[in-house]
């Protein structure tokens, strides 16, 4: 949407704004690309206001200083009970003010963890990054499931229906103790933008076994289990005084595993970092 005249903006702001903002409303006309990505579709460099249209009717789009697109969100252009969120449009279920991340949670897993950002006294809720369920397997149909709080995978048309869906529809050798080691995708990615070692982005893990200890390297820390199991199950953990991390699960075959990722926080992280529990799965790279 292009920038309206100054008088139009004033008249819009004169109405009562929406105070809460979850799913884009059906009345918001965001572009397909912006809606699917769940993020701002702004143009990095612009020549005029028309180049900055993000497709969301509740934003005032303009080409600002440095030829950079700006998008001013106006709650007054949303329906009652909604907020205008840059990059997402009119949303319900998210407050305009907050103190900690938990204040912003909309109860939905798939649209990512909402954050509470800004200086003390004027913090505001910011939408999260949608969960990425792509497991890189052409024989599985990937979908995020809010009820499951994780990813759901079904067999893609044309793939081997005789292979269990847990294996993504692709044949795989049976698990043996020698199958443990390797680098695996980690889906959905576990992301935490918090403080210190509580900040991580886990999109893959590396599994090794030595001296009777199973080690799983995930981003910047290593989870361990000792003695190492030999039956294809795993329960690795790591703690740093602020966060406690755990990955449990089992191999469904030599090249794939399914499990549960949990993260809980205490000390200086309590009330700042959001606890996580999610069903995850991995495929050998």
List keywords for this structure.
285 residues; four-stranded antiparallel sheet; 16 strands; 38% strand; disordered N terminus
What profile does the largest beta sheet have? 4 strands, antiparallel
Helix and strand sequence: HHEEEEEEEEEEEEEEEE
Biggest sheet: strands side by side, in what order?
Answer: 9-10-11-12
Question: What count of helical segments does DSSP give?
Answer: 2
Q: Count the E strands.
A: 16
Q: Average pLDDT value?
A: 77
Q: How many domain modules?
A: 2
Low-confidence stretches: 1-43
Q: Proportion of β residues?
A: 35-45%
In quaternary terms, these chains amount to single chain
Distance between the termini: 43 Å
Can you tell me about this structure?
There is one protein chain. The chain is mostly beta strands and 285 residues long. It folds into 2 domains: 6-126, no CATH class; 140-283, no CATH class. The protein contains 2 helices and 16 strands. The strands form 6 sheets. A 4-stranded antiparallel sheet has the order 9-10-11-12, with no helix packed on it. The chain has a 4-stranded antiparallel sheet with strand order 13-14-15-16, with no helix packed on it. Strand 14 (243-253) and strand 15 form a beta hairpin. The two termini are 43 Å apart. 31% of the residues are buried. The model is unreliable at 1-43 (pLDDT under 50).
Outline the secondary-structure elements.
Blueprint: H1 6-13, H2 32-37, E1 59-64, E2 68-73, E3 82-85, E4 89-92, E5 115-117, E6 124-126, E7 140-145, E8 150-155, E9 182-192, E10 200-210, E11 213-218, E12 221-225, E13 233-239, E14 243-253, E15 256-265, E16 276-283
Antiparallel strand pairs: 1-2, 3-4, 5-6, 7-8, 9-10, 10-11, 11-12, 13-14, 14-15, 15-16
């Amino acid at each position: 949407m292009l920038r309206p005249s100054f008088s139009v903006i004033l008249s819009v702001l004169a109405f009562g704004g929406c105070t809460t903002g979850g799913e884009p409303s059906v009345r918001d006309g965001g572009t397909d690309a912006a809606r699917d990505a769940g993020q701002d579709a702004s143009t990095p460099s612009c020549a005029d206001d028309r180049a900055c249209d993000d497709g969301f009717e509740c934003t005032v789009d303009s080409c600002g200083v440095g030829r950079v697109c700006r998008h001013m969100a106006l709650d007054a252009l949303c329906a009652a009970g909604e907020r205008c969120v840059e990059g997402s449009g009119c949303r319900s279920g998210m407050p305009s003010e907050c103190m900690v991340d938990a204040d912003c949670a909309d109860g939905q897993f798939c649209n990512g963890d909402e954050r509470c950002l800004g200086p003390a006294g004027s913090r505001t809720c910011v939408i999260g990054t949608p969960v990425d369920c792509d497991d890189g397997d052409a024989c599985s149909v990937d979908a995020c499931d809010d009820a499951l709080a994780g990813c759901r995978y079904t067999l893609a048309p044309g793939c081997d229906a005789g292979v269990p869906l847990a294996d993504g529809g692709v044949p795989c050798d049976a698990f043996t103790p020698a199958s443990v080691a390797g680098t695996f995708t980690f889906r959905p990615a576990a992301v935490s933008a918090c403080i210190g070692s509580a900040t991580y982005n886990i999109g893959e893990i590396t599994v090794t076994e030595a001296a009777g200890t199973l080690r799983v390297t995930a981003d910047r820390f290593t989870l361990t289990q000792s003695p190492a199991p030999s039956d294809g199950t795993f329960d690795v953990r790591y703690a740093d005084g602020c966060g406690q991390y755990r990955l449990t699960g089992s191999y469904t075959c030599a090249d794939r595993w399914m499990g549960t990722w949990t993260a809980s926080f205490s000390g200086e992280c309590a009330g700042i970092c959001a606890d996580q529990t999610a069903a995850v799965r991995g495929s050998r790279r």
